[in-house]
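Entry 14. Ran structure prediction on the chain below.
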Amino acid sequence: GKGFVRYRIGIGQKPYPRTDLAAYVLSKFKGMELQLFESRISRYVSDIELIVDKGVVTAMNLVNRHYKPAT
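Output, structure tokens:
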């Protein structure tokens, strides 16, 4: 809602079309997902610290400028 900052971490596509979207989004990380999340957690923390220290707009510009999506 208004007054809150949302920091999103992309989860990718559902593994199967019939998978319930809510169940998929709210499920625990498994296997490679968990390893990827754990390898990036320090970056996520740094991003959130930047939001607190510099404000949302500045942090968003800095973080998005350095982020390169996985291909």
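The first helix runs from residue 21 to 26. Will compare against last week's run tomorrow.
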